[in-house]
Specification:
- This protein is mostly beta strands.
- The chain has one helix at residues 2-18; strands spanning 53-54, 67-71, 77-81, 86-90, 114-118, 128-129, 144-146, 150-154, 157-162, 165-170, 175-178, 183-186.
- The chain is 9% helix and 28% strand.
- The strands form 2 sheets. The protein has a 6-stranded mixed sheet with strand order 1-8-9-10-11-12, with no helix packed on it. Strands 6-5-4-3-2-7 form a 6-stranded mixed sheet, with no helix packed on it.
- It is globular.
Length: 187
Amino acid sequence: MSRLLAVSLSLGLALTLGACATPADGGNASSTSKPTPTPDQALVPKAPSSPLTQVDPELYNDGFDWYTFRVGDGPTWCTITPESDHVLCEQNEAAAQYMPIPPAAGCEGSYGYQVELFAAKPENGEIVGFPCASGQFQDPTDAQLLPSGSKITVGSISCFVEDVTARCENTTGQWIALGPKVWSLHS
């Protein structure tokens, strides 16, 4: 019984001290200032040094001219939408292994589990960013797998997969990356 009490006290102490974490050690700052925790950028796929296998994008067409693919054997998927000339990569919140991203002001939905890239600056918003999601995710169940080392190009957007992370770029050099351990936005 004393071992159970010791474990319970240790757990309680760890939880109490964990609640006192500072921004430098992974905690959150005050409610008025929430820094965005950045994952290790060494995990972001770099521009490939060897040729990638270009796939036929029609294999990934969902029948509505949206091109959806699962990223390697990981929990991430991306959808390229030619009509809006952009790509949205996403994963469900439980799959993210990086620190949560504080939501943008006014965002009441899920935040930090989707990244998007446009071919050019949209009328509203930025070329790259985190959208405020309504919680409605594209269903990747029937999406084809884009294996590691493969590349898909639709319109002005190209994406490639390295292991379980996708990196998508436009023709002017902006890009996004998303995988279970990392995200990155480059504008």
